[in-house]
Amino acid sequence: MASRRWAIVLAAGDGERVRRLTTDARGRPLPKQYWSPGDAGPMLRWALDRARRITRPAHILTVVAAHHREWWGDLVPGSMAAGMIVQPANRGTGAGILLPLLRVLRKSRDAVVVVLPADQYVADEPTLACSLAHAVSVVERGRRVVLLGMAPQGPEPDYGWIVGGEAEEDGTRPIVSFVEKPTPRAARELYRSGASVSSFIVVARGRALLALFQTAAPALLASLARVTEERVPGAAPDPAALARAYEALPHVDFSHDVLQRSAPHLRLLAVPPCGWLDLGTPERLERWIRSRGEGDSGQRAVAHKSA
Questions:
Q1: In terms of residue numbers, what domain contains 84?
Q2: Which ranges constitute the DSSP H helices of 21-92?
Q3: pLDDT digits (tens, 9 = 90+) for 250-281
Q4: What does the alpha-carbon distance between residue 37 and residue 53 come to, in Å, rounded to a whole number?
Q5: Is the residue at 35 inside a domain?
Q6: Model's pTM, two decimal places?
Q7: I want to staple 91 with a disulfide (CB 3.0 to 4.6 A). Which of 64, 229, 249, 286 is the partner?
């Protein structure tokens, strides 16, 4: 069963909102997933470590941007080099997930896929690992798409908020509603009601995840399917053909355009409090830096190879 498990690590974002905070030792801004706060190591490595707890290195696909090569070139371990998915341009998180998903399904039609963003801090990794293992287990036993929900630290409108129904025997809940970036007033109401926030961590049967794209983003699927089908099954797309395809790709946000539209087809697994924090906004990142007592001295670039 474990041989069917794959992980997709999303590390292609530019992190424009937090670039003034994620700087290297010389003060140059760099994408947040390559920024190393103090001795914690770069955020991308946090996500790769989570992926390694789920599956073997050969089944980890890391999505990076071509123009970030100076940072990821020395960071992704050699055992994962064959799983590098290099995007020629940013067309949203939809393309960032769909491109590696198509590659996975050409290798394993029965794959179970875990999607992991590379900009999230977790204070209690064992608790998250336990919930991830449980989500993988329920998907392997028949569930199709499970979204991990986190306990919010406050009524922040920048998140996607999830209202779940009653928990069933396997611990998952139907999703009653999915509200992406609600108004501040709506966020306060959702917070008071006990709603979860979306972690953007998804565990799914690969074909079920593909079906969500087929319904919610058919133009994106058609474009990427064409460019990947031109190659040997399972091989990386031709870089020139991929670049041409990306020029015309629609911009698709996975959370807003796919998950929110697919709520009736998703299950929610609420993760126990684990100190989870999305570090994608300046406010949250600044609070997190202050909580660690590091200030500017905690910001530095990755300058060594991953072991």
A1: 1-119+218-238+279-302
A2: 43-52, 69-72
A3: 999 999 999 999 999 999 999 999 999 999 89
A4: 23
A5: yes
A6: 0.91
A7: 249
